Structure prediction request, 136 residues.
Amino acid sequence: MFARKLKLNVVNHCIKTAGYVTKAPKPEIPTNPLKQIYSANDQQTNGIVYDRKPFKLTLEEGKTYHWCLCGRSKSQPLCDGTHKDVYLKITQRPIKFQVTKTKDYWLCNCKQTKNRPFCDGTHKQKEIQEATTIRL
Prediction:
């Protein structure tokens, strides 16, 4: 009986000092401030699945980046100009973007995101996980 009361007191003390957190705070969803300026954001098609998971990258505020949409760049997740090779007949153009804060961002590597170039979790879908057009 004494051990049970002691255990309850310890639990109550921890709750009072730490407080209750029912849910973790939702992460801020990044947006591309250049989305309305450049028409490449309006492309209807997506590129091939490069990877089944996103890529974490530290990006600087105010700097302009070019995210690879075609999925064939050798410097993923950023564009290296591979889409310009006329023999590959690639129709997707890179997405020009900036960030509003310098910090780590998760960029999409499956190339199917609706929030280009940022990961929106689309890679978790069954079709993406079973895709056979992945570059190794």
